[in-house]
Amino acid sequence: MILTWNPDKYQWDEAEYLDLVNQTARGEAVPGDWSTGGRLGGVFVGDRVFLLRQGTHGRGIVASGTVSSEIYQADDWDESGGFANYIDVLWERVVLVEDALPTEVLKQRLPETNWDRLQMSGTFLKTELIAELETLWSDHLAGIGQSQTGPSMAEVILRDAVRRRKIEDAAQNRLMEHYRNQGWTVADTRYGNPFDALAQRGDNLVYLEAKGTQSDGYTVHVTRDEVDHARANNGRCMMGIWAGIEFDTDGEVDPLSGWFNVIPFEPQDDDLIPVSYEWRTPDQPL
Q1: 55 within 8 A of 7, measured Cβ to Cβ
Q2: What CA–CA distance (Å, rounded) separates 181 from 176?
Q3: CB-based burial of residue 98 (10 Å sphere; 0-12 exposed, 13-18 middle, 19+ buried)?
Q4: Pairing label, strands 185-188, 197-201
Q5: Which domains are delineated in the chain?
Q6: Mean pLDDT of each 10-residue bin along the chain, 286 residues long
Q7: Phi-psi region of 126 (alpha: psi -120 to 50; beta: other; left: phi over 0)
Q8: b/e code 39-48 from CB counts within 10 Å (16+ = b)
Q9: What pLDDT, on the 0 to 100 scale, is given for residue 154?
């Protein structure tokens, strides 16, 4: 995912930015957060992000990192009194503005993306372009003397992210095909919605949620939005779980691995295991 930063709209504290440059140059991963613009879903912990600096002075990629939270809302960064969508990020590498990977290079090497027209954060790069961008960024860091020996964090993250995406896509496709084989018309709705697909047959509508995992599948991760939507549509939500997924020698999901089960998605309090909380401090209004 491409995050954007326009210094004409948001002034990053110079000392804080230089601290990030120095810390990440030493190999430290530094926690932070960033707005995803209008994007409300489709982002997962561990996803790869690049920060594109825009504006009239020094355009190009200045940072890379990984997502460390789901999308959440907080006070708008422009202090307008509204709310904005955010993710937490572990910044892996932040460079000086003058050391940015220039937009001109991005346009030449990755012309499929309109680098001059990315209006806000939250734009996904096409899957087939990810490896090329990673290579460009790695070579650029080496060129400015910030390379590292052995497999880079970016390479490890990219490998894991690609495998995770393959698992998610495989589970999604298997669930949709399961319903299509039963005569349902199925639409992929995974981006921007708290459900992955919508199945329709006559007057019947079913919301579908797909989960893929290499574990035994006894527990799966669900978001607050998914739970809220399922409770608001009780009796009309189904979950397809493909557990025990394995990869073949070509690095693709083995279609014969694991087991697949479709069950009603009716989350009850006793079935939910809290893995994090949001705390409203005492002086905040309800």
Answers
A1: yes
A2: 9
A3: exposed
A4: antiparallel
A5: 2-149 (3.10.590), 160-271 (3.40.1350.10)
A6: 86 86 86 87 87 82 91 78 85 90 89 79 83 88 66 52 84 97 94 90 96 88 88 96 94 95 94 73 64
A7: beta
A8: bbbebbeebb
A9: 47
